[in-house]
Amino acid sequence: RRDWLLLLTEEEMSNLGVLVAKLDGLTRSIQDDADKQMRKGNKSAGRRLRSTASEVRDTVKEIRKASLDLG
Q1: How far apart (Å, rounded) are the C-alpha atoms in residues 7 and 43?
Q2: How far apart are alpha carbons 48 and 22 in whole angstroms?
């Protein structure tokens, strides 16, 4: 049951939702760049992949913090 969701403010739910959506977009970007690097040897895609991986790390930290704040 998800009764505890009723105790969350819209802002708290919205923030976590935005972060999860951001993570979803970042992982899709990583998949695309990894495919370009592996299949086509695109070095720029590898650079973007590594940069996006750092963004994923930071976003996961934000998600963890938001989740802990929710209780």
Answers
A1: 48
A2: 16
